[in-house]
Write a structure and sequence with these properties.
elongated, ABC3_permease_C, 2 domains, alpha+beta, transmembrane, transmembrane helix, 16% strand, single chain, twelve-stranded mixed sheet
Length: 379
């Protein structure tokens, strides 16, 4: 009977291909959009995750996400250092000056000024150069994407110069920083030089990076700092999720992706469901003939579910292969790097599409179960 069910399914090539295409297209669309959406949201916290030296971030109490900073007082650094459980606490400045090259190319940049004595907060993933070279005067480290933006068509090399607020600096390192939500070049410099790039203001301390003593958890230390200083203290993961939550709540990105995901579900449900229903109805004569020779309803149910499983398996496999190929190709582009097909997305879409196919098969089952074999032969 299983072979008969398979022959019935592939016998009508047009409907079989239509079913496979609907499942494959919906699978590709849903996996693609959910993975890109997750990758885009994760980018909002990449600059936080890139700072490997911080267990806790301290900021103004009204700070909602990384790019929105209100300067702290210099005395706040000493207050944080005085909290029990703090191993170290260093300054971090964040600014967005404009960088210019010798040939006139310019771009707004994200400049991170790190502690001069310890260089805590420096990028650890380097493609060229060493992060310790930031100790040299008038030196910076720039990320690969930023370098290619400011020096298009040129190979990665050290020694290139940039002008930042009338300060000429030399590139002593190129980092492999995680891509940020906005495509600004990411520049690391020593704290005092970063302030000169932006222009001096009365207060310029953006964040305090804190390390916890052994035996003290980041969550416990963040609570202690908030209680003792009145400042906002978040662990690295908490701050990253704060950024994700801000963009989820205050931008139209979730709505736009949600519409596309909804269309994918609708296409899968309507097109695949309707096609599978019509396929079963048009094969009522064959099902009636099988019932006439003694095939039970339970066996017919198994045949229809087998057809549904074959359609789901082939369509899901093709859709997932298309999705994996898409992300493999785009992962080599600078703008779309780190967008990957998430296994959670693939598994979730697989369960969803299997549910869609099963619902469509259940809708057509009633016609088969109540079918009288005699009516088929009368027709």
């Amino acid at each position: 009977m299983n072979f008969v069910a398979f022959r019935m399914l592939v016998g009508d090539r047009a409907k079989y291909i239509g079913l496979i295409f609907a499942i494959a297209f919906s699978t590709f669309l849903l996996q693609n959009q959910t993975s890109i959406f997750a990758g885009l949201m994760k980018r909002t916290g990449h600059q936080i995750l890139d700072v490997a030296d911080a267990d806790v971030w301290v900021m103004d109490p009204r700070t909602r996400y990384f790019d929105e900073t209100k300067p702290l007082k210099d005395t706040d650094l000493a207050r944080v250092r005085g909290v029990e459980g703090v191993d170290y606490a260093v300054r971090l400045f964040k600014g967005t000056p404009v960088a210019r090259t010798v040939d006139g190319t310019f771009a707004a940049c994200t400049v991170l000024g790190i502690d001069e004595a310890t260089l805590l907060g420096a990028p650890r993933n380097m493609l060229l150069g060493k992060w310790e070279d930031l100790r040299n005067p008038n030196s910076i480290i720039i990320d690969k994407a930023g370098y290619l933006m400011l020096f298009p068509g040129r190979p990665l090399e050290l020694g290139q110069t940039l002008e930042l607020n009338d300060n000429r600096v030399e590139i002593v390192g190129i980092s492999d920083a995680l891509p940020a939500f906005v495509s600004f070049p990411i520049i690391h410099a020593r704290y005092s030089e970063a302030l000169n790039f932006q222009g001096r203001q009365r207060q310029q301390l953006s964040y305090v990076l804190v390390g916890a003593k052994p035996g003290v958890t980041p969550e416990e230390l963040a609570t202690r700092i908030s209680t003792a200083t009145g400042l906002k203290a978040r662990t690295t993961l908490q701050f990253m999720w704060d950024c994700v939550g801000y963009y989820m709540k205050n931008t139209g990105i979730p709505v736009n992706f949600g519409i596309t995901i909804g269309v994918g579900i609708l296409v899968g449900l309507v097109v695949a469901g309707q096609t599978f229903y019509l396929f079963t109805v048009e094969n009522l004569k064959q099902f009636g003939a099988l019932k006439a020779i003694g095939v039970t309803n339970a066996r017919l149910l198994g045949m229809i579910l087998l057809q549904a499983f074959i359609v789901w398996f082939v369509g899901f496999a093709i859709g997932t292969a298309l999705g994996a190929t898409f992300f493999e190709i785009t992962s080599h582009k600078v703008a779309t790097r780190h967008f990957v097909l998430l296994w959670q997305s693939a598994a979730g879409v697989g369960v969803l599409m299997l549910t869609v196919v099963l619902l469509a098969s259940i809708a057509s089952l009633r016609r088969v179960l109540v079918l009288e074999p005699a009516t088929v032969f009368r027709g």
